[in-house]
Amino acid sequence: MSFEHLPDALGIGVPSPRLTWRLPAGGRSQEAYELELTRGGRVERTGRLAGRDQVLVAWPGAPLTSRERVTVRVRVWTDDADAPSDWSGPSVAEAGLLDAADWHAVPVGATWDEDPEADRRPARVRKDFHLDRPVTRARLYITAHGLYEAEINGRRVGDETLAPGWTVYPHRLRYRTHDVTGHLTEGANTIGAWLGDGWYRGKYGFDGGTRNIYGTDQSLIAQLEVTYEDGTTASFATDGTWSAAPGPILTSGLYEGETFDARLHDPGWATPPGAVAGEWAPVRTNSRDLGTLVAPTGPPVRCTEEIAPVEVTRTGDDRHLLDFGQNLVGRLRVTLDGPAGTAVTLRHAEVLEEGELATRPLREAYATDTLILSGRGPLTWEPRFTLHGFRYAEVSGWPADLTADMVTARVYHTDMRRTGWFECSDPLVNRLHENVVWSMRGNFVDIPTDCPQRDERLGWTGDIQVFAPTAGFLYDCAGMLDSWLTDVGLEQLPDGTIPWYVPVIPGEPMWTPIHPGAAWGDVATLTPWTLHQRSGDLDLLRRHYPMAKKWVDLVEGLAGPTRLWDTGFQLGDWLDPAAPPDDPAAGRTDRYLVATAYFAHSARHLALTAAALGNDTDAERYGALADEVAEAFRHRYVLPSGRMTSDSPTAYAVALAFGLLTPSQRQPAGDRLAELVVEDDARIATGFVGTPLICDALTDTGHLDIAYRLLLQTGCPSWLYTVTMGATTIWERWDSLRPDGSLNPGGMTSFNHYALGAVADWLHRVVGGITAAAPGYRKITFRPRPGGGITSARTRHETPYGTVSISWEQTATGLTADVVVPEGCEATADLPGCPPVALGPGEHVLDTAKLAMKAA
Questions:
Q1: 631 counts as catalytic
Q2: How far apart are CA 422 and CA 437, in angstroms?
Q3: Could you tell me the pTM of the whole model?
């Protein structure tokens, strides 16, 4: 049993959380179910309810109240058994603070005056309190203006980092609930928190960044509630009785890095007895609309992996260069000893240039951490409030020889559950897929960012719009992206314009003021639909429908009666490899062709969304609008000869993939697309818009062989070119690193950018062979289409219903496939040269030679 899209339901913010369960092995198909709720010592059962629903099923009882804890179990009746199943194991949902009136904490922070335009030394805050009898339950509800890391009696609370994450703070600030019962002791106790600037008031954004985007204070908001054995309660919330003092972190920034002076650190600062007199002063209280505090809908950012350096090289001037063998996002943990005052500096970069860190692509993100030793013995340290994108690190000032066991790279990202895997017989394609996974990990850091290393790291709407199908297969990211889409709706302008990136920060002169742009703004319609298809979450679709409708209505007004969106600022096929380094929007494809194509595509998906929600009036209206835009597109952009006004791969790819051509135009367009690819020796000629679509456009028009040629090309530009150049993540530009080893001279040269990795969706569906034929994979199509010399592939996905997988291999007589259909699902196997075969739950071994013989 699980609740909403949460890995656990402690502190859930939904009063009536939806329930999901999987059928017992061999259950095949559910006919009925019964739910049991235990709340306040009372047991409530629904009785037998007929139905097949088992994913995001409506809460069966009264809504949860704040702090209420309910245990839930389920049992099912399946089509192969007369009696119900055993009851599932108990799962617990505990509500957080669901009403602003539940809060009495106030923001507290440093009492000293600060220069809001300068780097500010972070504070620590603390509170001593006394518990006069045994505690049976304790919860800490906590958030901050800025970032926090809490301790109780010297013990860390939780394991998340960069908490509370980045939301549109004026409207939504996340708090998290922690069970801290085991942290407390009868008698004297102390709670404390480290504070950091983070996105709230740190310097962030382009061209030197902007400080204090949301405020100038750095404050903790915390409420510790305890329940004693006798049933009485007590609360210790942030207020004017707390104390503050400067901490040993001298400076901290997400771009800049962190400086820590161990000489100023007292390890017992958050333990009883009270703080040393004179160092701590009463906090300054600040203000917050407590009605804006919300519980998370997804997991936090955590360390998910540790990587040791694969090579340590000492330079002639006593620096050490570390290679971790993988471009990653995280920070270093070091263990060392040395004289007091010794400064050890850690610098980070994704690539090397002439044997040194290539820092130019970082622009003004200095990515430098400094540790000043205390001289009090060995110390293990890592920064708290910063992250870097790097494969290489340079260490200077190390007081002795540095060996690989002294430094560890700790990988951080939103701790989503992995749900998708792919591998095939081609090792270069496997490395490409692994690069996609690593780029997603590095850029899903509370929000979906474009890049993790330079002075940007923003929630670009176009990047996730094209990548969402891949993301939703690889990881359970519905809860995280649902939260981010909520912020997209909050940042949507009154006229319907969707910002280029969310949350919105200053971006003059190119991105501020905000203009509507195709592909980027279409995140409002396309990404909720994708998440619905992956997860089966209809309520998610419903919540974001008003945003999607406002977007399509805006574009309809901009296009006017002609139904052509051919005015205004557009990015077109961003980062087409033919575009000059200093003008990434100047590609081969008419940017208004792209804009009109996306207008039709979004209108079509809005109609599909309306139909799924039962809004037949809107479904008919927006379906007719999509038809009108498609007709206008053909009239303007398709020539009588059948060619397009932009004779470019992206033009044909969007026309084909978005269904904008008549049946008689489709094959000539597919043939011309194939010609263009072959004429360019199957090198990539598409950017952010065309790249996710081109392989499908070729496949669907009978040019599977050309799609494989495109996939397997190793010359520049191509997907596998980057692999042959040693890439371990997806690059922003096809030639971020040029064949001669030099860096692309453009100001945007990231080596960790997931957008161009959207081809992995084609790998999963066409090479691997798994396609969702109904929301949440309730129905599945197995349709692998081998080619390009790839002789085998294995693909697996954890659907809401269970594991779906296919492992196929070419043989002398055809193809064999071992497929697994989850309980409660149905599937169709559509293997090459064979008629479709219906499959039920369970494992099936298929042989195309036998199937073809049987059909004959």
A1: no
A2: 10
A3: 0.98
